[in-house]
Amino acid sequence: MTRRTAALLILVAWIGVLGWLIGRERFRPRSTLLSEAALNISPGATYYRVLLGGEQIGFASNLVDTLPDAIRVENAMLLQIPALGELQRVDARTVAELSRTLRLRRFDATLRGDAARFGVRGTVDGDSVLRIEIESADSRRDMTVPLRGPIVLEGLLPLQLAFGGELAVGQTYNIRMFDPLLLEQRDVAVTITAESTMVVPDSAALPAGGAVWVAARWDTVHAWRVSQRVSGIEIQAWIDESGQVVHATSPVGFTMERTAFEIAFENFRRRDPSAASLASSDIIRQTAIASNATLPDRAAQSLRVRLGGVELEGFDLSGGRQTLEGNVLTITREPSARLDAAYRLPADTLAELRAPEPLIQSDDPRIVAQARQIVGRERNPRRAARLLTTWVYDALSKQITLSVPSAVDVLEARRGDCNEHTVLYVALARAAGIPARTAAGLVYVDGSFYYHAWPEVFLGDWVAVDPTFDQFPADAAHLRFTIGGLARQVELIRLIGRLELEVVEAG
Fold first, then answer.
1. pLDDT tens digits, residue range 422-453?
2. What's the CA angle centered on 204, arms 202 and 210, to 5 degrees?
3. Are residues 310 and 264 in the same domain?
4. Which of 284, 313, 337 is the last residue of a domain?
5. Rounded to an integer, what distance in angstroms lies between the CA atom of residue 150 and that of residue 170?
6. CA 385 to CA 267: how far, in whole Å?
7. Which helix (H) or strand (E) holds 51?
8. pTM: predicted TM-score of the whole model, two decimal places
């Protein structure tokens, strides 16, 4: 149940490759050059296979339509992700309208899972404001993002590079990005690292009596390798001189390959994934870290681990219950005395961590009413936080849900995994007047450490709680690496497949 955090983080980062990221342009002004070059952009469609562990788990497409005064681009991706023996369906789509100089005018991005839907619409107002409408189930919120110049769709960055004459090995650009899925701006370094030719299927044929489409003709394309770095994560893609992706890889095993439509779509539609293939490409089991020692499930009072294999700078490893000395992390479960707060509800401190956020709607009447029903007249923060922990644990069925969680949606659906439990808890705690935030990292379950999210509440100091397991406080087998929402959690991806963890002492 809690194990799907890694799946969601990987999914969010991979979707970024296909064009969900919106970036602020930091190149030198070249509107005239782009305006002239953009006249050479032709309408068309490009198709891709999406692979994980050598197995096709989905397909993607890129459609370009040229209008008299605009360019319309649609990126779509359908995935069936193996997770704990089940296939989780995810449909990601973004439609963007750009000017003839490739400046973004508006976009509409949606992410649909088996049990949830998340959408973001954006409109650029001049070059100074991005107006956003967030839709999740029946909840809608507006937000405004100030800009310092024109922005471009990152999925169209290859077009910018190709038609702006920037495809030169060794060139590096720093781009300010806004991700509508994470609702946050970030800095990304883009470097042209290599130049080569690649061969891709141009058309497909179905052999007589065959069940699988195969390449009928091949095309040789001139391509450049583009490397992106964001939050310590590196993603590489090969793009051609027309600004289309040829091949792309992520650091956690995803691959996207350009191919003919039938090979991408028909072969995926006809496939019958076996239990063996599901197990070999299971995204959750692949990211688990086996423990060198057996710990008491949900009862560890203290834990010391040695971390290696990755650069630890930038993670939230110290503070509260955690102490980092060199590469040894010590976690001590909060004793009873540390759970007694010196304030009464509502708190009069940490206002920003009692305030609503786009996906933590602590001011929504439904969230406020539910918090009052749970807490009642209780004014002791410790007892109120405990009541909330038990209520969220009891109220939500434990179910893998690959989507972007919203507190209001979770309250209505009453199901989800650790991210749903956490976002609802944080919203309810803030509505009750308790400062609360999201933490994420690793948790020990059945002999392995899995990626996980849980809340922290302020009771004189920050205290970890876990409504997914009904733990108050959470046991010491919760290793916090980040503090903050999904945008911070994405940074955990740079640990996957690299982090070395050795249990030194447990008690």
1. 999 999 999 999 999 999 999 999 899 999 99
2. 160
3. no
4. 284
5. 25
6. 51
7. strand 44-52
8. 0.82
